[in-house]
UniProtKB/TrEMBL annotation:
Catalyzes oxygen-dependent 5-hydroxyuridine (ho5U) modification at position 34 in tRNAs. It is an enzyme of class 1 (oxidoreductase). PANTHER family: RHODANESE-LIKE DOMAIN-CONTAINING PROTEIN 7-RELATED, THIOSULFATE SULFURTRANSFERASE/RHODANESE-LIKE DOMAIN-CONTAINING PROTEIN 2. One of its GO terms (molecular function) is oxidoreductase activity, acting on paired donors, with incorporation or reduction of molecular oxygen. This is tRNA uridine(34) hydroxylase. It comes from Methylopila capsulata. The lineage of its organism: Bacteria, Pseudomonadati, Pseudomonadota, Alphaproteobacteria, Hyphomicrobiales. Residues 126-220 form the Rhodanese domain.
Length: 249
C-alpha cells in the first residue's frame, strides 16, 4: 500500500484551540490518519499521512466541516507520497505556538515577508544585493541547502532571534531572502525581522518542498537532499523519497 503525506499549516485565530483537540483527534482517527498535528491560538501545523483516498477525505473535512467550520480554507499544503507508512501513531497536541519562536511581536497573520514563487526564486537569490538565509536547524542544513545561503547554526528554531540580533544587523538595509522546509518557520522568522526594523524581507512560498516539487532538477539551485520530520528522512526533486544511503552528509 502507498501512502499520501500532507504537510500543512495555517496561521488563523483559534482561541478555542484546546477545545478543538478532541474533535480533531476523532476526525483523524475516522480517516485512519497518522502523524502529528499541533494546535495553538495562532493556528494549526502538522504533517500527516494516510491511504490517498482517506487523506483526501480528511483534508476536505478539515477545510470545510467541523470542527473548524471553514476557518482553515486558506490551508498551506504540500502533498507527497511514501512507499511505507511514515508515521507509527497519531499525536494531536495543544501548544502556545504552532512553531515556537517566543516573540509576541512576530504575528504572520498581521505582517510577514513577501512571498516569492518557486519559479522566481533562482533569479532572486542570484542577485548580489540579496542576503539568503536558511531558517532551518544545523542538522537539516548539513543534508542540503542553496549554495551560498547563510547557515544560522541553530539547534532549535527559537535560537533564530539571537542569530538575527548577532549576525544580521549589518544587513538591515538589504533584501533578505529566507527559506525553510515547508514555509512555516519563514512566516514567523520574517515577521520577527520586520518587527525588528528590517524593511525588505522575502520568503520562499511553500518552502523547499514546493521548490523541489515545481522546479525541474535541471534548473534547480538546490544542492543535496531535504530533511523531513518523518520516517522517510529525506526527499529530493519531485518530492521523491531518497534512500538512506544516498542522503548527505
Amino acid at each position: 500500500m502507498s501512502y499520501a503525506v500532507a504537510a500543512l499549516y495555517q496561521f488563523t485565530s483559534l482561541p478555542d484551540a484546546a477545545a478543538l483537540q478532541a474533535p480533531l483527534r476523532a476526525l483523524c482517527e475516522a480517516h485512519d490518519v497518522k502523524g502529528t498535528v499541533l494546535l495553538a491560538p495562532e493556528g494549526v501545523n502538522g504533517t500527516v499521512a494516510a491511504p490517498p483516498a482517506a487523506l483526501d477525505a480528511f483534508l476536505a473535512e478539515l477545510r470545510e466541516g467541523p470542527p473548524f467550520a471553514g476557518r482553515l480554507d486558506g490551508l498551506e499544503l504540500k502533498l507527497s507520497t511514501a512507499a511505507q507508512a511514515p508515521f507509527g501513531r497519531l499525536k494531536v497536541k495543544v501548544k502556545r505556538e504552532i512553531v515556537t519562536l517566543g516573540d509576541p511581536a512576530a504575528d504572520p497573520s498581521v505582517r510577514a515577508g513577501a512571498y516569492v514563487a518557486p519559479s522566481d526564486w533562482n533569479a532572486l537569490i542570484a542577485r548580489d544585493d540579496v542576503v539568503v538565509v536558511d531558517v532551518r536547524n544545523a542538522f537539516e542544513v548539513e543534508m542540503g541547502s542553496f549554495e551560498g545561503a547563510i547557515d544560522p547554526r541553530t539547534r532549535r528554531f527559537s535560537d533564530f532571534k539571537a542569530f538575527a540580533a548577532e549576525r544580521l544587523g549589518d544587513a538591515r538595509g538589504r533584501t533578505i531572502a529566507m527559506f525553510c522546509t515547508g514555509g512555516i518557520r519563514c512566516e514567523k522568522a520574517s515577521a520577527h525581522l520586520l518587527a525588528q526594523g528590517f524593511s525588505d524581507v522575502r520568503q520562499l512560498k511553500g518552502g523547499v518542498l514546493k521548490y523541489l516539487e515545481e522546479v525541474p532538477s535541471a534548473e534547480s539551485l538546490w544542492r543535496g537532499t531535504c530533511f523531513v520530520f518523518d520516517d522517510r528522512i529525506a526527499l529530493g526533486h519531485g518530492l521523491a523519497e531518497i534512500p538512506p544511503e544516498e542522503t548527505t552528509p
